[in-house]
Amino acid sequence: MKKIEPEDLLSAGVHFGHKSWRVHPKARPFIYKMERGSSIIDLFQTADQLQKAKDFVFNLGSENKSLLVVASKKQIRSEISKICTDNDIPYFTYKWVGGFMTNFDEVVKNIKKMTQLEEDKQNGAWSALPKHETVQLEKKMNRIKKVYHGVRFLTKEPDSIFIIDIKKESNVVKESNMKKIPTIALVDTNCDPTLVNYPIVGNDDALTSVMLIVQEIISSFVEGRKTVKSELKPKI
């Protein structure tokens, strides 16, 4: 597993933090300096944090456990959806559903409802219905899919959650902590990094910064998962 160096993080713009007046007191130890009123993140610390998070998700994957990615910022939705879909990782890129972690049975019901609507449409069960009813069913199906499409194959609570922007996803952090589910997160300087188990202090606004961190975390998780598959192969 290749170690990311501070230079790699610098090239991706991970070092750009928030304006001084927005800096959270608990993020200050991870700031290298203030420049023109903005915080510059200490990338040596970020590189260490990223490595710890990568080690954690590698072990998670090697134990055949699940990782849920939560990133609902509009500018990163499509990229997150693609990388997660390509690697069979559940994801949330729409508004977080309150109670997702604390009332997972309800989530399962909605996923089943979505699947049933899709099957009914595909099997022609809607063909005998009046036009206005099929329109309503289509709207209902699309509404549920918009929220639950990325988690449709999640059959139980995730074993860990990877979050982009814990300020925006504060409810995810609260629910995860309530359920004692380990959290990894890209945490900008306007947030409290102590709220998550594996904080990676860095720029959570720039696409290049976010995607570098996301790619590193997901690649490590997938590498860990491969060890499970290789162990299952029959020995000749």
From TrEMBL:
Q: Name one GO biological process term.
A: translation
Superkingdom, taxonomy of origin: Bacteria
Ordered alphabetically, the record's keywords are: Ribonucleoprotein, Ribosomal protein
Specify whether Ribosomal protein is a keyword of the entry: yes
Q: Name one GO cellular component term.
A: small ribosomal subunit
The keyword Transferase appears for this protein = no
**Which Pfam families does the record cross-reference, listed alphabetically?**
Ribosomal_S2
Q: Which PROSITE patterns match?
A: RIBOSOMAL_S2_2 (PS00963)
As one GO molecular function, the record gives:
structural constituent of ribosome
Q: Which family does it belong to?
A: Belongs to the universal ribosomal protein uS2 family.
Q: Which NCBIfam families match?
A: rpsB_bact
Q: Which HAMAP family does the record cross-reference, listed alphabetically?
A: Ribosomal_uS2_B
Recorded protein name is Small ribosomal subunit protein uS2
